[in-house]
Write a structure and sequence with these properties.
Layout (H helix, E strand, L loop, with lengths): L1 E2 L15 E5 L3 E5 L4 E5 L6 E2 L14 E7 L9 H8 L2 E8 L6 H6 L14
Parallel strand pairs: 6-7
Antiparallel strand pairs: 1-5, 2-3, 3-4
Length: 122
């Protein structure tokens, strides 16, 4: 599970990842290998499934195995995003693409970032 809202009282930060250890009528117990957190279930829980993440959401996270969807037609497939995606893997990274021959050119693209001041009025 992925925490989707900070909770200072429980020392939880948006993006923290846990495994569900136990579910009861009054609480949900989460573990991450270092700590155990018990969340009361009397109100909404700020959680989401953590089966998949965007490249942006995976920054700072390391996983043993990573599956990467690298579409050559996507504007988000570029040098920076590919580096972040591939570098999340500790042991294995598998890249899935729509066109193996076009992937190198897509990955070589520079991410173009523009500020509002860069836009020109016509």
């Amino acid at each position: 599970m992925r925490i989707t809202r900070n909770d200072a009282a429980l020392d939880l930060a948006n993006g923290d990842r846990f495994t569900v250890a136990e579910v009861s009528r009054t609480s949900l117990t989460l573990v991450d290998g270092r700590r155990t957190v018990e969340l009361p279930v009397r109100g909404p829980l700020h959680l989401d499934h953590a089966y998949a993440n965007t490249v942006h959401g995976s920054q700072g996270v390391t996983a043993d195995r990573v599956l990467i969807d690298a579409s050559t037609r996507s504007r988000t497939t570029n040098k920076d995003a590919f580096y972040v995606a591939i570098s999340r893997a500790r042991l294995e990274a598998r890249v899935y693409t729509d066109d193996r021959t076009k992937l190198p050119a897509a990955v070589e693209r520079e991410a173009q970032k523009h500020a509002a001041l860069d836009l020109e009025r016509r």
